[in-house]
Structures are given as C-alpha cells and as structure tokens.
Design brief:
By secondary structure, this protein is mainly α. It has helices at residues 2-10, 12-18, 23-55, 60-83, 88-111, 131-151. Helix 1 packs antiparallel against helix 3 (23-55). The longest helix has 33 residues, at 23-55. The two termini are 23 Å apart. 16% of the residues are buried.
Amino acid sequence: MFVPIVALLLNMSNIYEQLGQDPRVLSQMQIYITTYLPGLFFYAQADLQRRFLNSMGITAIPLFTQVLSIALHGTWLYLFTQTYDYGITGIGMAGCLTNFIAWLLMVIYTQFITEIQESVFLPDSTSLYGYSDYIRIAIPAAFMTCTDWWVF
C-alpha cells in the first residue's frame, strides 16, 4: 500500500498544476513531500508498533514515546530551519526525525518486555502454520465487508 501512495505523492505537483495551483507553491510543496517521504514510512511503522503494543495491553509506552518525540519536534524544527537554514527541507527533515524517534523508542522498549517476547520473532516456516484456515475465513469476511462498503 505504501508504493501507490508514494507514487501519488511524488506526482502531487502535476495534479495540483492541472487544478491551477501557483507554481511557486507547487515547488515548495514538492520539496516538502519528497523530503518527508522517509518520515511517512517511519510514521506507518510507529503506528503498527503502537497498535501491536496496544493489542498486548501496553498503552502507556506508546503514549510516552509519542509525547517525547513530539516534545522534541520543536527542537528539530528550530535546529533545521533556524540554525542550519534548510527552510522547507528542514521542516520535512524534522518530521522524519520525529517519526523515526517515536518508532525507534517503541521498538527498543518492545525488546525488553518479557511478557510478550513469545510474540516478537522473525517469521519462519512455522509462521505459516494454519494460514490456509485463516485465508478460508478471511476472504469471505473481506468480501462481505467490501460489499457492505460498496452498497453505500
């Protein structure tokens, strides 16, 4: 899902140009989007990690890491836009760094939670055990959900 979104984002200036947007705005927009794309990836990873920890009943740590990374965001903005004078590129870099820190802190913390170590592993052939049973249930359920969406 990330690849189509990236393709769309990389062509946003062309889309907005067709809608009559000012070319000066388009160039600044495209600089920000291009700079922020790695941050978007880390945002998605942090969101997945947060959802995983929440499903394990661990809610304080995702909150703490998000608050800490957002608190540091102002520092990164000042550093990249004022100290180093990167302008719009610095704003994208600050967002990337903020999302990376949120993700990294959650991943590091996850490695030290002994209660969930059984669920934290790299996939191997045993990970696919029972996958056909899952697919047999998932495909009809997904189809039912989609038909519900399509009706409205």
